[in-house]
Specification:
The complex is a heterodimer of chains A (515) and B (376). Chain A has 515 residues and is of the alpha/beta class. Chain A is built from 18 helices and 22 strands. In chain A, the strands form five sheets. A six-stranded mixed beta sheet of chain A has the order 6-7-8-3-9-10, sandwiched between helices. In chain A, strands 16-19-20-13-21-22 form a six-stranded mixed beta sheet, sandwiched between helices. In chain A, strands 2-1-4-5 form a four-stranded antiparallel beta sheet, covered by helices on one side. Chain B has a domain of 239 residues. Chain B is 74% helix and 0% strand. In chain B, helix 1 packs antiparallel against helix 15, helix 5 packs antiparallel against helix 6 and helix 13 packs across helix 14. Classes of the chains: A alpha/beta (515), B mainly alpha (376).
Chain lengths: 515, 376
Amino acid sequence: MSLPVTHKIDSVALRNIVKRFPGVIASDHVNFDVKAGEIHALLGENGAGKTTLMRILYGLYQPDEGEILINGKPVAIRSPADSIQLGLGMIHQHFMLVPTLSVAANVALGLKSSRGLLLDLEVVSQRLRALSETYGLRVDPDAMVWQLAVGEQQRVEILKALYRGAALLILDEPTAVLTPQEVDELFVTLRRMAAEGHSLIFISHKLHEVLAISHRVTVLRNGRVVQTLNTAETSRKELARLMVGREVMLRVERPEVQFGAPRLVIKDLWVTGDKGLPAVRGTSLQIRSGEILGIAGVSGNGQRELAEAIAGLRKPTQGQILIDGMDVTGWRPEKLILNGLAYISEERFRDGVVKDLTVEENLMLEQHGHAPFARGIFLDFGRIASHTQEMIRDFEIKTPSRQTPLRNLSGGNIQKLILARELTRKPRVLIASQPTRGVDIGSTEYIHSRLVAQRAEQTATLLISEDLDEIRNLSDRIAVMYEGRIMGVLEREDASIEKLGLMMAGVSVESQESG
Amino acid sequence: MEPKKRIRPINWLGPSIPFLAALAAFVLGAFMLLLLGANPIEAYAALIDGAFGSMNSIADTVVKATPLLFVGAGICVAFRGGVINIGGEGQLVVGALAATLAALTFTTWPAWALIPVCLLLGFLAGAVWGAIAGFLKAYYNVNEILTTIMMNQIAVQLMNYLLSGPIMDPVQIENGSFIPQTARFPAAADLPRLVPTRLHLGVLLAVVVAILVWVLLWRTTLGYRIRAVGLSPAAARRAGIRVEQYAMLALLISGALAGLGGAVQVLGVNHRMFTDGSATGFTSSAGFNGIVAALFGQLHPLGAIPASGLFGAMLVGANKMQRVVQVPSALITALNGLVVIFVVSSEIWRRQLARRQEMGAMREAALATAPAGEMT
């Protein structure tokens, strides 16, 4: 294969970009620039206009006004093909790879072969190895994509862009799908790429990542640039304020609460996972009324199966689940719901809501059969209206109306809707799985305060999260789950990052103490 | 917000798009007519004249539309519940058979008792036919498309067997002609005529059923559950709705309405049951055309009313068109197909348009600092 042209990009600038969608200005006279060797973060909440702006740069959208300059010269970017030609590359949130093809074949896809009509995968593989070497992107060019972990697939995407000679890379929320370790590896690669003279645009709404990786940061809010700052001269607090538009509490106020008797008791629970193997292996837990028990751990260690078993979606093969002393093992969801169980599912879009129903219809998903939502077999629309309107107001759900299809709401607002629905029932036990994953800062703050407020309502909350900060901020006690087992339960004060980290790697509390 | 502003399953563009799609299909059909050497204007004029030209032709159109509406209303329930019912033909047939058996058994009953019993039995027979497929789908995960189609065959063979033996017209046996048909029903079983045409009471019943289906789907908890199950079984299950039960129920209701349609057809139009060996001999493919009408009506039972009328008109007008311009009436089948293709593809386009508008509205709301609760 002929070596792609190595582009030379000294600077890329967006000048006064305006993009209007019906009823809204997604980009409002935006100025933005990035230089060679620079990592420039684009920070903003969901819907702030980050992705729109980058789609304009990448040629997926055409701006209504404004211009794009590369090395000081105006360029017309009408399609991604144009932008690739100019040396731009974009790593999307959702990877665009063919799972059944090898890494090399995926990279070669759509490129001219050096051997005419014949494949030249050997050549591609060799060049990929060289590229991997240069940037520290460990990937086997001959591996099949379906065999790769998410982090590796992302590396393939980056290699693909580099292979095509990209001098500027746009990374759209690249850490959303990665484990903490993979994030660290990605950052090493990004720094090396910048050192090699590449320009990088790093889209994120996570403050600590932006602070850790970028040289400069531009904050967007409501389609406008709020400010561009040097990362070294700013702080987490300042960025949060610029992004949200007001002071943000990064820590949750936790008033003291008197815990009551155990409300949720799990005894030696075994649950089978989707692969037919035990995913929960003899878990025992107790949560008192008014208490939040956090379960930390890397996803896939049985947390989902545990939550689904408690919610009645999976039958345990062994063990017991008790709510307020009543054995509810193997109960159907409807019976559990009637008995005060609320469940915020981690698969928000799959089983948390019905995307094609309206906001109002989603708010009554569990309770539509009883008062105040129904009168006999008929839905009581008058009372549905007043109740759902109240829920929308109380939980600050931003929606044009009750009758907006749910699919049009942002992730944060959907999560607030789920919270509204589950908490309005005054649950005795609440299972909250990854309650703020992919949710903007404003909504996260709100959800956290609501979860903490449930303590005063004497709810027993099981909080499952991969976000260690979230777990440590909210929980009264913290358990770590590893390969289906609880590695130990720590009091809030004892739960240092080091101890939790070791437990997440499979070292139990006892062996930590003895060792 | 006013509480009276309720769920609007049809949005503002909804009703107009099917008609644009139909228009497009007719334009394409005009080219097909030209290819066949016919004058499209003349042909369509004949079609319209055949369907609406006289009191009798209008009555014929409405009578043809009636079974489509029964099936179509049922299809709305099934499809909204996420189950695909291709068994309209069989359900029509068993409904008609049940009504036939009743009409031939209770020959001395007065109309006010006989007709409701016949209709009820037709309804129940269709319900059983739908429920069998629903049960297999819900509890054994057997594909309902396959089972409903196969149930069509079973219904047809059952009809052929009954009509050529157990309930064959005694006159046929006496004469030795053995035409597979029943005796004429007692006059008490005839659905009352509305005006001195073929127009019978079943037409009104079909409209009432369509309205009831709308009430069911959008006004009752049962319909809400059926729709939730159809849109997202996983979310419905998590929320405590028994997905299997409601999928089965949707098929059952769908079958029951088709069965009722079969009973109405036999009491209102034929007054006896006969077979040419296939389902079509009795149904004229209403079991399939009803699906088309439901899709054309955007799976909305009230939309299915005009949609059934349109397809009824096309079926009736086709005969006249065939006579006047000498083109095969099968062309109407092709036109039906074109309409479906245009409707289904325009649906995709409409959805995109609607989404874009709603996105705009949503962002506007997101930009406003006040929570939505105060915006109304």
